[in-house]
């Protein structure tokens, strides 16, 4: 099954790209799209944690897509590939010792296939199959994406408690999305329950599906109706269930629920929140809460700049370390449409990523991003 699933999918994508390459130059330009990006973090732990010090880490992505409608084939089809490279230091593991992860690009030194999927839209239904990042479609917060701490990307109660196909290690999956109306949508996906880690699968191209690896099922219902007149909002309710066999071939089951709110107060000011629960009997980290706000377009001279403050609480029971709270303040300077610069500061109360108690940590960032 491992070779069959991988070979069939890669051959299908290769056929798409090879056939389109024979089209004229104008067609190729409209059917293909390419994108590259780079993020670099200079991170300093000024106080507390494991030890003080400074490190650098980076993330590079090269992406390519193919649109079947623009190629004059059929409507609603898209193939996509995303290659990634992570490099540099590990601020959480080496300096801070926190549980949630101060940098959302920390992964060590890796070069790997991050995404490879085909998507087909028919009317108001979209189906996606292939190598996918769960967090690209589920448990996302628009306003939380401004921040650097990993928990504002996907809450730690999901990322820590189960084998979740998110950055950097994604997994095979199938996803269906139904846009019921302009205000309501429903989505569900099933993923490989236990993808091999980078020690066994260093480039994320050695896929396999088996009963022992199990599955991860996730579903989410979204409401796009604002509580405030003439503003936009999004409210998401989600649940997930994970089943696999452990190293002794005993079946293990886990799951949880989450709620995410993004609400604009006006055209410039917005707030967000994430809430998560997992069964206490199975998870030491069984509850999560975040709150935050962002303010953008505060100056006519700098309409793309943003300022934000957020707090994330990871509730951890049954250990000697206790729960962890991360407080983050950040400012996004948009230099132009290709380059941004973002100073960031985080205060980690009770860093809980180690077996022993650590002093509160004060962490500073300078993040630079390039998109082209």
Biggest sheet strand order reads 1-2-3-4-5-6-7-8-9-10-11-12-13-14-15-16
Secondary structure category: mainly beta
* Biggest sheet details: 16 strands, antiparallel, barrel
Helical amount: under 10%
Average pLDDT, all residues: 92
Low-confidence stretches: 1-25
**What's the shape?**
globular
Structurally, the number of domains stands at 1
Using only C-alpha atoms, the radius of gyration works out to 21 Å
CATH architecture descriptor text = Beta Barrel
| End-to-end Cα distance | 38 Å
As a percent range, the share of strand residues is over 45%
Q: What is the name of the CATH superfamily?
A: Carbohydrate-selective porin OprB
> Any idea of the CATH topology?
Porin
Series of H and E elements: HHEEEHEEHEEEEEEEEEEE
The beta-strand count equals 16
CATH C-level category: Mainly Beta
Number of helices, counting only DSSP H or I runs of 4 residues or more: 4
Kindly describe this structure.
By secondary structure, the chain is mostly beta strands. It has a single domain (2-15, 38-371), classed as Porin, CATH 2.40.160.180. It is built from 4 helices and 16 strands. A 16-stranded antiparallel beta barrel has the order 1-2-3-4-5-6-7-8-9-10-11-12-13-14-15-16. Strand 9 (233-245) and strand 10 (251-264) form a beta hairpin. The longest helix has 20 residues, at 2-21. The protein is globular. 36% of the residues are buried.
